[in-house]
Design a protein that fits this description.
This protein has about 550 residues and is an alpha/beta fold. It is built from 21 helices and 22 strands. The longest helix is centred in the last third of the chain and has 21 residues. The model has no long low-confidence stretch (mean pLDDT about 90). Bound molecules: ligand C2E and magnesium ion (2 copies).
Length: about 550
């Protein structure tokens, strides 16, 4: 055997040399073995005078034949393919032109069994894209397919649905029956889910007990709903978990492309929001996303249930912000400002929950609590020997519609023992404008009782100053938006000057809100406004700090 031949035999690849017409000139032992294994018998090599014999072992014989025809027509071309054999193996084949000097005289073919390599690669790919416990595709796989199918749906203008499914009370089962039972449940759920779906649908394990579904090519939204119903039905029979039969319901949230989102992220987010709706409305059901459920409304919903609890649990506190007469430097009044001490979210400002409390009516009991607490606090200050001042309490529009508001105020004053003249009620200009006649009646009754009245946030509504004459206001609070721009906007300065002048004529006390800087203070003073409230003097303070502030002023 020549050195060349020895080398030829020592390579790991099956090598074949053909002439320019495809006739076999030479091959090594490895090459013979590759095909002998396939035939399970000795090959009578003289039968196979050219390459086409390989085709009979392959699944795609015709493809192979046309390929070698092309290659022999183009002697310079190299090729690389993987061929699947009828016995299930995969053979990688390369073909390179054999050159002698500048001439191509034939081809050298090398073949190699790559079955194992492909298997390992496929397994790695599978593991990277599947959940090992349930065998379902994982989140990454789902996201990749979602991107692809979404692009298709956009191109074909077809419907696509993303669903979130979540087992109700899975955590409870996992914690009480153990992880083995939890795992069994997830596997069985995966099996039932797969049975409900069409071939082109995808179900993935998203995380924990959350599954995502991707349904493409829907004719209408009802198609998606039908599948969701089918799934809920399939989940109905009891699950056998470690010998225990257990009923486990689930909830499904549905989002549809294009109505509920045009990109993957939005669709997933909205399906998730719909899932929470489904859970909220009693579990074991499905819910279609509607644009009404966005994160804001779910926050709103959460807030609503928390707010009910807050009333029962007394999670409210009052802060007090002083009003100062800047000429004398004295505190003339304290405004009670409501805060919600949320156990998780911390201190919440009224702007975030009063509109909600107004809408659901909780402002009525909350408002009564504010009034009682502020009156009691003021009595405490007086009882501690501090010179009497007024306390101001804000009233909302809803409270003005409360039929017994006047009696309620009278009762609180009586109960706490605070003289009516030490209470001021603040009503915003917009509230007054909402129901002029009713407000007028109520204000007159309160005025009769000796309670002082203030118009809050003046300038933000559209009432004329002349209008004010018709109401028994004692105080006008100039809205902080004017104060903010007072020193920069000459219009604001002119408006504030007019308000102050008119207030004087009407014999109203004027208070500027939101004074934050010395420049604003001086500007207001030059316009003849002496009473101010704002961070420049003090932020709203908790009761004990407000008490200290009063004591340092007067004692
Ligand atoms: P408001 O009655 O006009 O209260 C003044 C608001 O301005 C307060 O906000 C106060 O913290 C803030 N503020 C005070 N000084 C400054 C300042 O120098 N700069 C700025 N930027 N802001 C200042 P807060 O406490 O968040 O209250 C907001 C609104 O919520 C109040 O406006 C009032 O309309 C309403 N509110 C507060 N407590 C109650 C309540 O018990 N019942 C009702 N119905 N409404 C309330
Ligand atoms: Mg106020
Ligand atoms: Mg105000």
């Amino acid at each position: 055997m020549s050195l060349l031949q020895a080398t030829f035999e020592a390579t790991a690849d099956g090598i074949l040399v053909t002439n320019g017409q495809g006739n076999i000139l030479n091959f090594n032992q490895r090459f013979a073995e590759l095909w002998q294994n396939a035939l399970n018998q000795q090959v009578a090599w003289d039968e196979f005078y050219d390459l086409t014999f390989i085709a009979r072992f392959l699944k795609k014989a015709a493809h192979f034949l046309s390929k070698i025809r092309d290659l022999y027509a183009q002697p310079q071309v190299e090729s690389h393919d993987i061929w699947e054999l009828q016995d299930g193996r995969y053979i990688e084949g390369r073909s390179c032109p054999q050159r002698l000097g500048d001439d191509v005289i034939g081809r050298v073919w090398s073949f190699r069994d790559v079955t194992e390599r492909l298997k390992t690669e496929a397994q790695i790919r599978y593991q990277a894209s599947h959940d090992l416990l349930t065998g379902l595709p994982n989140r990454k796989f789902f996201n990749d397919r979602l991107a692809e199918l979404l692009a298709q749906a956009i191109a074909n203008q077809s419907l696509l649905s993303v669903m979130f499914l979540d087992l109700d009370r899975f955590k409870l089962i996992n914690d009480s029956l153990g992880h083995a039972a939890g795992d069994q449940l997830l596997q069985e759920v995966a099996r039932r889910l797969r049975q409900c779906l069409r071939k082109q649908d995808i179900v993935a394990r998203w995380a924990g007990d959350e599954f995502t579904l991707l349904l493409s090519d829907l004719n209408c939204i009802e198609d998606a709903v039908a599948i969701a119903q089918k799934i809920l039905c399939a989940m109905k029979p009891d699950f056998n978990l470690e010998g225990r039969m257990l009923h486990v319901s689930s909830s499904i949230g549905i989002a549809i492309y294009p109505t509920d989102g045009e990109d993957a992220e939005t669709l997933l987010k909205n399906a998730d929001a719909a899932l929470y709706r489904a859970k909220d409305s009693g579990r074991n059901g499905y819910h279609l996303y509607t644009s009404a459920i966005n994160s804001e409304t779910s926050e709103w919903l959460m807030m609503e249930s928390h707010l009910h609890r807050a009333v029962e649990r007394q999670e409210f506190v009052l802060y007090y912000q002083p009003q100062i007469n800047v000429i004398t430097g004295e505190i003339t009044q304290m405004e009670a400002l409501l805060r919600w001490k949320h156990p998780e979210l911390g201190l919440i400002a009224p702007g975030r929950f009063i509109p909600l409390a107004e809408e659901n009516g909780l402002i009525v009991p909350i408002g009564e609590w504010v009034l009682r607490t502020a009156c009691r606090q003021n009595c405490d200050w007086q009882a501690a020997g501090l010179p009497p001042i007024r306390v101001a309490v804000n009233l909302s529009a809803r409270q003005l519609r409360q039929p017994n508001l006047v009696e309620m105020v009278a009762q609180v004053l009586e109960e706490t023992g605070l003289a009516a003249r030490y209470l001021e009620l603040e009503i915003t200009e917009t509230t007054v404008m909402k129901n002029v006649e009713l407000t007028k009646t109520i204000l007159y009754e309160l005025h009769q009782m000796g309670v002082s009245m203030a118009m809050d946030d003046f300038g933000t509504g559209y009432s004329s100053l002349g209008y004010l004459k018709r109401f028994p206001f004692n105080t006008l609070k100039i809205d902080q938006s004017f104060v903010r721009d007072l020193t920069t906007d000459p219009n604001d300065k002119a408006i504030v000057a007019a308000i102050i002048a008119m207030g004087r004529v009407l014999n109203l006390k004027l208070v500027a809100e939101g004074v934050e800087t010395k420049v604003q203070e001086h500007s207001l003073l030059s316009l003849d406004c002496e009473e101010m409230q704002g961070f420049l003097f003090s932020p709203p303070l908790p009761a004990d700090e407000a008490t200290l502030l009063l004591e340092s002023q007067f004692l």
